[in-house]
Write a structure and sequence with these properties.
Blueprint: H1 2-37, H2 43-54, H3 61-69, E1 73-76, E2 81-85, E3 91-93, E4 99-100, E5 108-109, H4 114-128, H5 134-147, H6 153-162, H7 166-181, H8 188-201, H9 204-211, H10 218-268, H11 275-296, H12 304-326, H13 335-357, E6 373-376, E7 379-382, H14 383-405, H15 407-417, H16 419-424, H17 429-451, H18 463-476, H19 481-502, H20 504-521, H21 532-535
Antiparallel strand pairs: 1-2, 1-5, 2-3, 3-4, 6-7
Helix pairs in contact: 1-2, 2-4, 3-4, 4-5, 5-7, 6-7, 7-8, 8-9, 8-10, 9-10, 10-14, 10-17, 10-18, 10-19, 11-12, 11-13, 11-17, 12-17, 14-15, 14-17, 15-17, 18-19, 19-20
């Protein structure tokens, strides 16, 4: 019995050895034949070569196909040798990997057409389908889904059978479905299952894949039409969600730019045309902070905004107090003069910044925690916009708490509601005016810190937001922070929903016309302030 067991083991070992012995030369021969076909300068031969090399299992397969995609694969028509020009400029023999002194004079790049480019993408996808990194496997499956080359089907099915990561498994299933839908000789049942898989994916690429299907049976065509209708409905909903997100993002920017103006305009009645320049000064403060950090302490770059926010508040706030004490205090009760004076101040500040920093845009970088984006369903959310929204709401909450629970806040509210009564109760209204103007300017400064992350930092930065800021304040209700919040988000969302229909310029005009009509009905905005002076 022991002898029989030994004989069985020996026969298994011999069969495995013979299989390997026969397979390895065959694969090696296929690889060499494939590499040689690249030198024929013939599109069908190149397509065959891509398949042979990609399926050979040779470690040089990925560098060869990658070089072909990047126009770094060259062939000598005389010697029929193929060469890879590496990223560092060195040349190696594609068949052996041996270094080559220089590229032969007769060597020319291996040509590609659109069909071959799809084959290259599919081959690269197949070569990375079995990567140990799940992210690379998913990316490879996505590449195969786009190219849906039939030659990748065995590799995809093998990878799908062994996959344990759910996201990668779903990606493999989608890639397999895409290939089946574009392969002849597949049963209707399998194609219906493939359509269901692609329908569940439900994005623009799935829609394009189903739309391009042709020469299908009536049953498959009907199922594809139903899936297309379902995907289009779903994408329309996601498009509305995306526009709503863009609207919230724009609204947060408008709120941040307008919230300081709401305080200044509401308490003091000053039409401050220099408010945009306070935003601009905050942005330039951020630039200076980042420039100093880059030069001296580059390791602190990710913390640059935490340093810039209080500095921008102090710089803009100090300049605001200076403007109020030297110019604005003499013009109370004369709105036209304050408008002209602050407009002149805005021109002076713009020219001062041009003189100091030049007229061109300045680079302000995103810290690592504000870079990138993530997918939520079928919409893309960028981290910088998300953080700006959170920052805006935090500033709003802090400002509300300050107005409600601090002495300065109570004095500001008293002056807003009835300036004469507040003065008769012992409140120094001139001091409140200066601090209020400084507070509004300081908030505009920190708005500039946020805007520097999504807009060009230039002397004209503030001019892009001053008109929108006044629209938000007037629409929401002069001096009412909750009105400013609702007004900013309402205008932001309305603008983003109108843009796809009417265009950016006509959309803004439509918003302006709607605000004018609204003000005709409610002159004090959405949330009118209450108070004896106001009622009078």
């Amino acid at each position: 019995m022991a002898a029989n067991a030994f004989d069985r083991i020996r026969s298994i070992v011999l069969s495995v050895f013979l299989t390997v012995a026969l397979t390895v030369p065959a694969l090696a021969g296929a690889f060499e034949d494939g590499v040689a076909k690249f030198a024929n300068d013939d599109f069908p031969d190149t397509e065959e070569a891509i398949g042979l090399v990609a399926n050979s299992g040779n470690p040089l397969a990925f560098p060869i196909i990658s070089a072909l995609q990047d126009d770094r694969l060259s062939a000598d028509p005389d010697t029929k040798k193929v060469y890879i020009i590496q990223q560092d400029g060195k040349v190696i023999d594609a068949a052996t990997g041996a270094p080559v002194g220089k590229l032969p004079d007769n060597a020319a790049s291996v040509r590609l057409n659109n069909r071959l480019r799809r084959s290259v993408e599919a081959a690269l996808g197949s070569l990375t389908l079995l990567s140990p990194d799940p992210a690379k496997r998913i990316a490879a499956a996505q590449s195969v889904f786009k190219s849906h080359e039939e030659s990748a089907l065995p590799v995809v099915e093998g990878a799908l059978a062994k996959e344990t990561n759910k996201a990668a498994k779903d990606a493999f299933a989608e890639a397999r479905a895409a290939i089946l839908l574009n392969t002849s000789g597949i049963s209707d049942a399998d194609k219906l299952d493939a359509i269901a898989t692609v329908k569940a994916r439900g994005d623009q690429e799935a829609l394009a894949l189903l739309t391009d299907l042709s020469d299908q049976s009536p049953l498959v065509t009907k199922a594809a039409a139903s899936a297309i209708s379902s995907i289009q409905s779903r994408l329309a909903v996601w498009s509305a969600v995306q526009n709503a997100w863009y609207g919230l993002s724009l609204g947060s920017v408008l709120l941040l730019a307008a919230i300081g103006l709401a305080i200044t305009f509401g308490v003091m009645g000053v039409i401050n045309m220099a408010h945009g320049e306070m935003v601009m000064l905050g942005a330039y403060t951020t630039f200076v902070v980042q420039d100093v950090i880059r030069t001296n302490i580059p390791g602190l770059f990710d913390y640059s905004l935490f340093i810039a926010v209080p500095l921008a508040f102090l710089v803009a706030g100090a300049i605001g107090v200076l403007i109020e004490r030297t110019i604005i205090r003499f013009l109370y009760g004369r709105p036209l003069e304050t408008l002209l004076a602050t407009w002149g101040i805005s021109l002076v500040l713009q020219q001062a910044v041009r003189t100091a920093f030049g007229p061109t845009n300045r680079e302000v970088g995103n810290p690592s925690w504000m870079s990138g984006a993530f997918e939520l369903g079928q919409i893309t959310i960028t981290y910088n916009r998300l953080w700006i929204l959170c920052f805006t709401l935090a500033v709003f909450a802090i400002l509300l708490a300050m107005l409600r629970y601090t002495a300065l806040g109570l004095e500001m509210r008293a002056v807003t509601q009835n300036r004469r009564m507040a003065a008769s109760m012992g409140i120094a209204t001139s001091r409140v005016d200066a601090l209020t103007f400084g507070l509004g300017s300081g908030i505009a400064g920190i708005a500039g810190v946020a805007l520097s992350q999504i807009d060009n930092v230039s002397p004209n930065l503030g001019q892009s937001y001053i008109i929108d800021s006044f629209m938000v304040v007037v629409f929401g209700g002069v001096g009412n922070l909750w009105g400013t919040l609702v007004g900013a988000f309402t205008l932001g969302i309305a603008n983003k929903f109108l843009e796809p229909v009417a265009g950016a310029v006509l959309g803004k005009i439509a918003i302006l016309v709607l605000i004018i009509l609204f003000i005709q009905k409610r002159p004090r905005g959405l949330f009118a302030l209450k108070g004896r002076a106001v009622e009078a």
